[in-house]
Design brief:
By secondary structure, the chain is α+β, with helices and mostly antiparallel strands. The protein has 13 helices and 15 strands. It has a six-stranded mixed beta sheet. A five-stranded mixed beta sheet has the order 2-3-5-4-7, sandwiched between helices. Strands 6-8 form a two-stranded parallel sheet. Helix 1 runs antiparallel to helix 3, helix 1 (about 1-30) packs antiparallel against helix 11 and helix 6 (about 160-175) packs across helix 9 (about 220-235).
Length: about 425
Amino acid sequence: MTAWLVQNMIWASALMLVVLAIRLPVARWLGAGAAYALWLAPALRFVLPPLPERAAGMLPETAIVIGIDGAAPVAAATGANWLTILIAVWAAGATAFLIRQWRTYRAFLAELSLTSRSIGAHAGLPLMESDAVQGPVALGLLDRRIVVPADFATRYGEAERALALDHEAIHHRRGDIWWNHLALGLLALNWFNPVAWLAFRAYRADQELACDAAVTAARPAEARHDYAEALVKSVSPARPVTAAPLNQVDQLKRRLKMLKTHRRSALRSLAGIAAVVALTGTGAMLGSAGIAHPHPEEGKQARRERIVIMTDRQGEAREHADRFERRVEIRRGPNGEVLAPDCPEGARRTNVDEGGDNQRARIVLCSRSETTPAQHAEHLRRARDRLARSDDLSAETRARILAHLDREIARLRGQ
């Protein structure tokens, strides 16, 4: 679980950097909506499970499966302790971040409740006014509403009011408030990551530009002028990130500049969809264990061997397959002893039983049935060399297993 989370964080951060690098030209060439949709790629990469390491039914040329009674712990206590500390610090930071955001949001709602009053509806959404806001704000996951300043009817012209309210209604229609909560959760998990903070800020800016485009793309020039006036009048300080105010002060200059570029085109829309699909698909595949790059020291042939070591430690089972780690079920015999698992169907199996009563290694050598003895010996030699470099076994156990593998290799070569 920890390895999967760390891997996804790394790949998601890489995709965030890609989106940060291309979002501005994508907005100019393909539209603000396409730039906003690009953020789906790192979000999906962060939550996607890893793909299977190899396709079902594929059998490595040689697998060494070792079940060990009484083996030493796989990880040193010091390493485990440091890992526990790091996880605790990460969890504490994420929790503190979410608590702070929740308290900020609750304080904002309390401030609204003191002066808010209903003034009707817009696009099927309750419309409220309050002294607590300086410009229109969309908020609420289930209790969806639009809140406007108390002087909304006098400070904004009729056309400006309609465009500003359309902007907030689009936020609700597109589910932007839900997306903001999801983005906030991902930021909490990445609270230590400066790339994630830059990405979140850019994501919110792109969200507002996409909403601007949806409001103005098909409207005439005079409507864009009215909309620009509404943006200027709606400049407000930062609000809780889960809400969607019409205009925060740090975004005004770029949004006014981009108003001239928003236009609708079927070709731009198709190109934007293609760009988003390509980036999302590439990110999903590149971050998956199923096509992860091999270790530089491992050749193409070496990836076809597999060494799995299972240790029975305080009732837990651990399996090491290449560099990936996952839980497996320990099989036991009638006397409670650990049994090595069976080979896949159709494989050639060689059994080994090494060691004494205190530490006994039960080994199964699995290989493809069509391999010749010489090929089998060569596969075992490569696997034996990898096992010799492994730190997952005690020196005594590893020496005994390597000695048996040497005897088995010599026997196969003599056939």
